[in-house]
Amino acid sequence: MLHRYLAAAGLKDIPKDLGRLRYAPLDKQTSASRKAWVDNMTALWCSGSDDNQRKANASSFSLDVKAQRTLRYYFADHQRLPPGQIEKSTRHIQASAPSSSLLTESEKRDLDELGYLNLGILLDDRSLDSLRERLDTRVESEGSNAGHEVSQTQGIARLSGTVVKTLNSDGLLDVFFSHPRLLACVQHLLGQQFKLSSSNFHAPLPGYGAQAMHADWGWGVTQPEVVNAIWMLDDFTPDNGPTRVVPKSHRWGKHPVGSAFNEVPSALFQPIENEIHLTGKAGTCVVYNAHLWHSGTQNRTDSLRRALHSFFTKAKRPPQTDVMPLIDKQVWSRFSATQRALLDLPPP
Ligand SMILES: O=C(O)CCC(=O)C(=O)O
Question: What confidence category does residue 98 fall into, taking pLDDT thresholds of 50, 70 and 90?
Fold first, then answer.
């Protein structure tokens, strides 16, 4: 089965020494200049509690062309649908779930304080078998193009826009953006105006998968802009490349790239104090405030570690994947108004 994944992961073979660390740390100068850029963006972003204040403060910061372009992009309004539609849609989905099955007060507290919440097993064995087969087939057919819409990394097979492509023609993947408990978490963190930003499949192959500690937003913030959920499609074990997270780091107002020890930028591929590894049975869904410091780790087993990420953002922010060029016409016609609202999609 691994052979179906090689092209997507940019590999010819699976290495023999699965335990040898494989990553490419940045040189000192690049790390220092990235740190300075991220620190500047963090200071500007945190100088205001909304975009109007940030725009007004921008003239007091020295911003390079990349920073100016990035801010213009983030300050623009990227919401397609009228605001009321998302609210109506989450109400509609949650109305069909008993209120006790949404989020308890202690779950909300964990999400707020620790920065993540394990929602338990939300996918049954039958769905898992179908999902794995569907995703394996798609990875093989996209081959070396797989994941190009967001990012490609040697040793990790990825797919982007999974819920809007033909592989979701029968709705098998709808759960990834419409599970009522997941939506309750997103709403708790981002408020009513949110949308799916991308739905990415992520499978480190044996011997690969180590990532630099990061957050899913380019600089530090004080209020969440993004929420992620990881759906384990295989058991996550200590050895097969489970996601690592640093509990409570979402509250530090700092992006890992801006962190330093004795003024030297931190070694982001190394273990970080207090990090924990998210392990669990296949079918488990863990939601996290995506400003929480986290990363993939190296898969040291001879099997795949497959996962699907459901990434949400505030509705006005740019999506990670623009669904318009990717969406399959039939999938689009199949979506209900409620589902379209969660994807910020107009009618076909
Ligand atoms: O799948 C994982 O373990 C984490 C992936 C991740 O954080 C990323 O690709 O940004």
Answer: low
